Structures are given as structure tokens and as C-alpha cells.
């Protein structure tokens, strides 16, 4: 099965690159193409994309196309105020802290592709259980916002043991941030999105 393709269409290069990296952390099976304008998207077989993440400005300038592809379009907005969002489209506020942005993306993913339906299987190496049961417990508490001392107390283990588990988790998964760890934990069902 072919990898699903996502298009990000926005004139803000930094926002595009950041969103692309977050989406790739969430779903490494994606192919993500970025475009600085609607004309660039249009020149690259726009029908081949499963979703479009598009700035409000570009959606408004090309309303007919995106209205016809309403179910595939996620409008990137700068405000959480529902009065400033387009009512016919899913919206994603990108002017929020990283944790909130990831939470919103995971919420969209869980409601649109719950359980991975409509998506091809994850690469073979990502399907295997990588972490021990204790590492999964520690990871779950990390992404829920507990600090090392609280995790040690909760699991009745030494602080040094928590720090070792934390390092091993990050090394095994090849991750460098709690945000990436949060994405991994939610995508693999280790933590409910409502607990972060």
C-alpha cells in the first residue's frame, strides 16, 4: 500500500517546516510535501493528497477548490476563537504552545483515522514492542507531566532508576523531546489523549 501523502500549503516557511516535523513524528508512514502557494500545489497533482494543511489566506483565495475538498482540508489559523474560523472546515490553531498543537493534531488524527483505519500499516520496525513494561509505565507518567521525583514516588523506585529509564526510553525510540514522546505514547495507545 502506498504511503499517504499530505500537502502543507503556507507562505510561512518556518511554520511549514515545524508542522512537517511534528506530523512526521506522529506518523512516520506519511509522505509530506510542502508548497509556498496554491499554484505550486496545483502544479503537483493535488488530487493525490489525503489531506491539505492550508493557511487561512490561501483557502480564502482559492475557496472553490478547498470547498470541493472540504473533508481533506485543515485550515491553519492564528486564533482559537471559533468566530474567526471558517465554519465549513476543520481548523488547527498554530499560534499555541507546542504541547497544545500536538494535542490538537492527535485529536484530529484520532477522530479522522481512529485505530489507523484508512492508513497503511506502520513500518515493520515500529510494530514491535520496543520498551519494557516498566519503561512504558515511566513514559506514561512523563507524558502526563510528572517530574522525575514524582514518578519515583508513584512507582516506588529510586530517583536514579527513573533517570536511567528516561534515558533508555529516549535512546531506544530515538527521540529528543517530551513532545515527540507524547506523540509516540498516544499513537501507540499507552496514554489517553485526555490525560495530557
Biggest sheet descriptor:
5 strands, parallel
Label the overall shape.
Answer: elongated
* End-to-end Cα distance: 33 Å
What oligomerization state is this entry in?
single chain
Q: Calculate the mean pLDDT score and round it.
A: 83
Percent of sequence in beta strands: 5-15%
Q: Which class best fits the helix and strand makeup?
A: alpha/beta
- How many β-strand stretches? 5
Walk across the major sheet and give the strand order: 2-1-3-4-5
Q: How many distinct helices? A: 10
> Which radius of gyration do the C-alpha atoms yield?
19 Å
> What is the N-to-C order of secondary-structure elements (H for helix, E for strand)?
EHEHEHHEEHHHHHH
Helix content: 40-55%
Folded structure, characterized:
The protein has 196 residues and is of the alpha/beta class. Helices cover 48% and strands 12% of the residues. It is built from ten helices and five strands, in the order βαβαβααββαααααα. It has helices spanning 13-26, 38-42, 56-61, 63-68, 98-112, 124-127, 133-143, 148-155, 159-173, 178-187; strands at residues 5-9, 31-35, 51-55, 73-77, 90-93. Strands 2-1-3-4-5 form a five-stranded parallel beta sheet. Strand 1 (5-9), helix 1 and strand 2 form a beta-alpha-beta unit. The radius of gyration is 19 Å and the shape is elongated. The two termini are 33 Å apart.
Amino acid at each position: 500500500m502506498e504511503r499517504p501523502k499530505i500537502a502543507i500549503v503556507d507562505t510561512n516557511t518556518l511554520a511549514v517546516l515545524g508542522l512537517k516535523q511534528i506530523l512526521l513524528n506522529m506518523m512516520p508512514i506519511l509522505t509530506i510535501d510542502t508548497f509556498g502557494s496554491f499554484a505550486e500545489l496545483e502544479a503537483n497533482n493535488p488530487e493525490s493528497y489525503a489531506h491539505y494543511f492550508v493557511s487561512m489566506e490561501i483557502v480564502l483565495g482559492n475557496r472553490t477548490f478547498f470547498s470541493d475538498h472540504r473533508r481533506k482540508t485543515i485550515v491553519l489559523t492564528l486564533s482559537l476563537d471559533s468566530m474567526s474560523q471558517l465554519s465549513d472546515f476543520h481548523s488547527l490553531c498554530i499560534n499555541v504552545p507546542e504541547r497544545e498543537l500536538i494535542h490538537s493534531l492527535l485529536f484530529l488524527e484520532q477522530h479522522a483515522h481512529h485505530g489507523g483505519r484508512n492508513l497503511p500499516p506502520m513500518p515493520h520496525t515500529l510494530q514491535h514492542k520496543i520498551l519494557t513494561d516498566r519503561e512504558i509505565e515511566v513514559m506514561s507518567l512523563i507524558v502526563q507531566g510528572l517530574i522525575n521525583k514524582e514518578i519515583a514516588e508513584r512507582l516506588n523506585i529510586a530517583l536514579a532508576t527513573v533517570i536511567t529509564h528516561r534515558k533508555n526510553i529516549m535512546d531506544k525510540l530515538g527521540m529528543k523531546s517530551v513532545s515527540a514522546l507524547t506523540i509516540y505514547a498516544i499513537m501507540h495507545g499507552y496514554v489517553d489523549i485526555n490525560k495530557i
